[in-house]
């Protein structure tokens, strides 16, 4: 990975957030940051990486945006003149939380935007994901996602949605959308939808960091604590999820000595805190499921099924049902799991076909398993996941090859 790419992955969200504060306009901020990174691609190989790469990006983006606005506007353009006045040093308003990225998340999660647009826009602006990557996370065509992003940014501009953290009285109602954003940002980092590597550590770290900020902001909100616990459990395993060659290692085959014990214990304590509050929500239940998986083997699959039953009552989605079917297969056998999987409508989701393939393999139905692995392979975008599927497919077809 080049230094420009590393800085982009780590600092794109921060740079856009700072520029939104400076200019008060999402489009201006995003375009300016893109211009700055394009300039870095041209200049850094010759001049070297500056001492403060993110500072260079933000300063370059700010100057480029100011130059463009002055060049393209007239003196009578009051909106542009107001933007330039802000950019020339107007102090930013102090909010409940002094974090630029958190302000941007709440802007993207404003009730004026529909829920899907909120998450998509935050993935775009905070995480720097491409439209194709976001479309894959949402299981929708790329063109659909492109239109969704354009409409969301236009809505922020036309409705003059403020760039701030809501007042304390507004926070509880806005929290659900923000948690959904952080969850999908973390998931895209934890299992990148495309590219060579399985993990984008910068996205995971950013989601966890913002999760901690939210917990500090709302320390008595169990769902915020539950989401943080869930992310910590998953992040604790990152060192064991890939082998020496970058290959994906399944949870059951991971070397637990490579897990981050401090993160596991912190997550367990957060789950215990949530249990004492007695106000369960979807993120708390998912954290509890991962707490069971963090216990020494053998896994208590019956307990996992019960927790998934609870999760289905809270969020009865096809993906939750798919994960529940995996647990049912461990308790009642692969045939029971397959019967549940075959009742789901997830034809465009690669893990649906990978799960079917694994259950069919366990039922000694190799031809059907090979077809399902092939379909999963065609849909998977991440190189590490594709390699795992190739190995599984090869193991199924080898005996008859």
UniProtKB/TrEMBL annotation:
<feature type="domain" description="DUF6596">
    <location>
        <begin position="174"/>
        <end position="272"/>
    </location>
</feature>
<keyword id="KW-0805">Transcription regulation</keyword>
<dbReference type="InterPro" id="IPR013249">
    <property type="entry name" value="RNA_pol_sigma70_r4_t2"/>
</dbReference>
<keyword id="KW-0804">Transcription</keyword>
<dbReference type="Pfam" id="PF20239">
    <property type="entry name" value="DUF6596"/>
</dbReference>
<feature type="domain" description="RNA polymerase sigma factor 70 region 4 type 2">
    <location>
        <begin position="105"/>
        <end position="156"/>
    </location>
</feature>
<protein>
    <submittedName>
        <fullName>RNA polymerase sigma factor</fullName>
    </submittedName>
</protein>
<dbReference type="Pfam" id="PF08281">
    <property type="entry name" value="Sigma70_r4_2"/>
</dbReference>
<dbReference type="Pfam" id="PF04542">
    <property type="entry name" value="Sigma70_r2"/>
</dbReference>
<dbReference type="InterPro" id="IPR036388">
    <property type="entry name" value="WH-like_DNA-bd_sf"/>
</dbReference>
<dbReference type="InterPro" id="IPR007627">
    <property type="entry name" value="RNA_pol_sigma70_r2"/>
</dbReference>
<dbReference type="InterPro" id="IPR014284">
    <property type="entry name" value="RNA_pol_sigma-70_dom"/>
</dbReference>
<dbReference type="InterPro" id="IPR013325">
    <property type="entry name" value="RNA_pol_sigma_r2"/>
</dbReference>
<comment type="similarity">
    <text>Belongs to the sigma-70 factor family. ECF subfamily.</text>
</comment>
<feature type="domain" description="RNA polymerase sigma-70 region 2">
    <location>
        <begin position="8"/>
        <end position="73"/>
    </location>
</feature>
<dbReference type="InterPro" id="IPR013324">
    <property type="entry name" value="RNA_pol_sigma_r3/r4-like"/>
</dbReference>
<keyword id="KW-0731">Sigma factor</keyword>
<dbReference type="InterPro" id="IPR046531">
    <property type="entry name" value="DUF6596"/>
</dbReference>
